[in-house]
Design goal:
The complex is a heterodimer of chains A (475) and B (54).
Chain A: E1 13-19, H1 23-34, E2 39-42, E3 60-63, H2 69-72, E4 87-88, H3 103-107, H4 110-116, E5 127-129, E6 134-137, E7 140-141, H5 146-156, E8 160-163, E9 167-174, E10 177-185, E11 188-199, H6 205-216, E12 236-245, H7 246-255, E13 270-274, H8 276-282, E14 287-296, H9 301-309, H10 311-318, E15 326-335, E16 344-351, E17 357-363, H11 367-386, E18 390-395, E19 439-441, H12 456-471
Parallel strand pairs in A: 1-2, 1-11, 2-8, 3-17, 11-19
Antiparallel strand pairs in A: 4-7, 5-6, 6-13, 9-10, 10-11, 12-15, 12-18, 13-14, 14-15, 16-17
Helix pairs in contact in A: 1-12, 4-12, 9-10
Chain B: H1 2-29, H2 31-35, E1 36-40, E2 45-50
Antiparallel strand pairs in B: 1-2
Classes of the chains: A alpha/beta (475), B alpha+beta (54).
C-alpha cells in the first residue's frame, strides 16, 4: 500500500527498509512479500519524474566525455526501468571468476527473474561458436517498466509499504550495526527502525548515499571500505562499417554448422563477442559487437567505395554470383571495462535541494578497451575476407591515440563491489556491507566486473537471492 | 671429387630447407600482415582488405 503519513511507521520495528524503488528494490520487496514478509520501500521521487527531480540527478564528471547523468537516470517509482532499452542477457561464467558468487548460485533464480521481466521461459540464451576466436550470442527483450507493471500490485499489497517523495538522509548506528534511518518527507524528518536496511538506489546513488553515511558515522563504517571505487560502465561506440554479401554469409553459417542462423532484418542485430581463449591470449577485456544490417544496391555510396578499394573482390566474388543480395553493415561495440580503482564516485561540495552532496564521477576509458574493440573487429574482418563474405572498414581512432566519443552505455556499475574482503570490496557474497551486521546493497553497484552484457537480468537475480537470504537470516 | 659433390648437394639442400621448415612459423607470426592489408585511401576509414583485392 502507499503510505502518505510516515508517522504511521515512525519508531516501529520493521523487517526490512528498502531505499529505492528501481528494479532491484521492487524485486526484493516482491520476493519478501511472496514469503509473507513485510517491507517498506522509500522512494525519493514520485510516480513519474518531474522537472525538479533533475536537480537531484546532477553530477559532475571528470576524465573522459560521458553521458549526461541527469537524463540517463530517473528519480521516480520504478527507477531507470522507466526508460531503459529492455535488453537482457546473463553474465558469462568467466565473468564470475573473481566473484564470491558463481554462476550456478544465480541460475537458481533464472525462472523467477524471467517471470519478473516477462521473458519467454522456453527461449534460451545461447553462446555458440562462430569462429576460432569469436562467439555468437543473443539478447532477449523485456517490455517491463517496473513502475507500470507493479504500481497497482503494490497499492493493493498488505506486505509492501511504499512511501513516495521520501529522501534518505542518514543511517544511525553503533557497534557494527545500523539502529535506525533518518529520512525526510514534506519538510518533516522521520526516524525509521528496521531489522535490515537495503540500499537499492542504482549504480551511482548507492555509492553517494553510502559515502554520505560514512562521512557522518566515522565509527560505524570501516575507513578502508573502498566505497565509490572501481566504478565502471559499458562504453558503446561505432567502430566501423562494411559490405556483406548475403549468399556468402549464409554459406558460412552452413559450412560451420552454426545452429542459430541470423535473421537479416533491420530490427535484428547479430551479436558477436570474443571467446575466453582469445581474451587470454590477447590480454584484453571482452566486447559485444552489434552488427546491424541495411539492404543496399550498387548505387549506394558504400558499394561504390568497396568497388574502388577492392575492385577485384567485386569482380571475382560479387559479379560472378547469380543472386546478389547485399547489405551495408554497421558495427557497434558494447565494451567491458577493466575494473580500475581510480574510476570512482566521490562527494562534491555542491549539494542537491535536500542538502545532500552531489556526486563527482571520475571516469576514464583505457587503451585496453580501444585495443579490444580493434582486435575483435579485425577478427570479424578476417572471417569476411577468408570466406569472401564482404569487406569491413574500421574507424581511424582504433589505430591512433585520438579520443573517441562514447555514444551510450548508461550502465552504471561498481562503486560498492562484491568481494571476499575489505581490501578491494564493499559487500560480501550476501551483499552485506563488510563489518556491518544489517546493511545490504542491492543493484548494479555491487558488480565486481562488468562483462559486456546488459546488467538488468543479473541485477534481478541478485535481488531475488538477497530476499531469499534475508528471509533465512536473523540478526 | 665424389665427396665434394655429395657435400655440395647436402649444403644446397639444407639451404633450401631453411625457408621450407620455417615458413609456417613465419606465416603464422605475421598472418595478419601477410594475408591482409590495412588499406587507407581517400576515405577516413581503415579498410581491412585481402592483398589480392586490388
Amino acid at each position: 500500500m502507499i503510505i502518505e503519513n510516515l508517522n504511521d511507521l515512525n519508531n516501529k520495528d520493521h523487517f526490512a527498509i528498502i531505499i529505492g524503488s528501481g528494479p532491484a528494490g521492487i524485486t526484493t520487496a516482491l520476493e519478501l512479500e511472496s514469503k509473507k514478509i513485510k517491507s517498506i520501500i522509500l522512494e525519493a521521487g514520485d510516480i513519474t519524474q518531474n522537472e525538479s527531480s533533475m536537480k537531484f540527478l546532477k553530477a559532475r564528471v571528470s576524465g573522459d566525455s560521458y553521458s549526461d547523468l541527469s537524463t540517463s537516470r530517473l528519480r521516480q517509482f520504478g527507477g531507470a526501468s522507466g526508460h531503459w532499452g529492455g535488453n537482457c542477457n546473463p553474465l558469462s561464467k568467466v565473468n564470475f571468476n573473481d566473484w564470491p558468487v558463481n554462476n550456478d548460485d544465480l541460475d537458481n533464480y533464472d525462472y523467477k527473474a524471467r517471470k519478473i521481466l516477462n521473458l519467454n521461459h522456453k527461449k534460451k540464451f545461447y553462446l555458440e561458436k562462430f569462429s576460432e576466436n569469436l562467439n555468437l550470442y543473443n539478447l532477449m527483450w523485456s517490455n517491463v517498466r517496473f513502475g507500470e507493471k507493479y504500481l497497482n500490485h503494490i497499492k493493493k499489497s498488505r506486505n509492501i509499504f511504499l512511501s513516495l517523495n521520501t529522501n534518505f538522509l542518514n543511517f544511525i548506528g553503533d557497534n557494527k550495526s545500523i539502529k535506525s534511518l533518518i529520512c525526510s518527507k514534506n519538510n518533516n524528518t522521520y526516524k525509521l527502525k528496521s531489522k535490515f536496511y537495503i540500499l537499492s538506489c542504482g549504480g551511482i546513488e548507492n555509492s553517494r548515499l553510502l559515502l554520505l553515511s560514512k562521512s557522518k558515522n566515522k565509527n560505524l563504517f570501516n575507513p578502508r571500505l573502498p566505497i565509490g571505487n572501481y566504478y565502471m560502465d559499458h562504453p558503446y561506440h561505432n567502430v566501423g562499417t562494411g559490405l556483406l554479401i548475403y549468399e556468402k554469409f549464409i554459406e558460412y553459417f552452413n559450412k560451420k554448422k552454426i545452429y542459430n542462423k541470423p535473421l537479416l532484418t533491420c530490427q535484428n542485430d547479430i551479436n558477436i563477442s570474443a571467446n575466453n581463449n582469445f581474451l587470454l591470449k590477447k590480454k584484453i577485456p571482452n566486447g559485444g559487437l552489434y552488427v546491424s544490417f541495411k539492404n543496399i544496391n550498387e548505387s549506394n555510396d558504400l558499394f561504390k567505395q568497396v568497388r574502388c578499394v577492392a575492385p577485384k573482390f567485386i569482380k571475382n566474388i560479387y559479379e560472378k554470383l547469380k543472386v546478389k543480395k547485399t547489405y551495408k553493415i554497421n558495427l557497434g561495440i558494447l565494451q567491458e571495462q577493466v575494473p580500475n580503482f581510480d574510476n570512482k564516485i566521490i562527494l562534491d561540495y555542491k549539494k542537491d535541494p535536500s542538502n545532500v552532496p552531489l556526486p563527482i564521477i571520475h571516469w576514464k576509458k583505457s587503451n585496453s578497451e580501444r585495443n579490444s574493440a580493434k582486435l575483435i573487429s579485425e577478427e570479424l574482418s578476417k572471417i569476411f575476407i577468408d570466406n569472401d563474405i564482404g569487406r569491413i572498414s574500421l574507424n581511424e581512432y582504433l589505430y591512433n591515440n585520438n579520443d573517441y566519443d562514447v555514444i551510450a552505455g548508461n550502465h552504471q556499475l561498481g562503486g560498492t563491489r562484491i568481494g571476499h574482503n575489505i581490501s578491494d570490496s564493499v559487500v560480501d557474497k550476501n551483499l552485506k556491507v563488510h563489518n556491518i551486521k544489517n546493511l545490504f546493497i542491492n543493484g548494479s553497484s555491487i558488480f565486481r566486473t562488468g562483462g559486456h552484457t546488459h546488467p538488468t537480468f543479473t541485477i534481478i537475480k541478485f535481488a531475488l537471492r538477497l530476499a531469499d537470504h534475508l528471509s533465512k537470516t536473523s540478526v | 671429387m665424389k665427396k665434394n659433390k655429395r657435400k655440395f648437394i647436402k649444403t644446397l639442400f639444407s639451404i633450401f630447407a631453411i625457408p621450407i621448415i620455417f615458413k609456417p612459423f613465419i606465416a603464422n607470426k605475421n598472418y595478419f600482415q601477410n594475408k591482409f592489408k590495412i588499406y587507407k585511401k581517400k576515405y577516413s576509414k581503415i579498410w581491412i582488405l585481402d592483398l589480392n583485392d586490388n
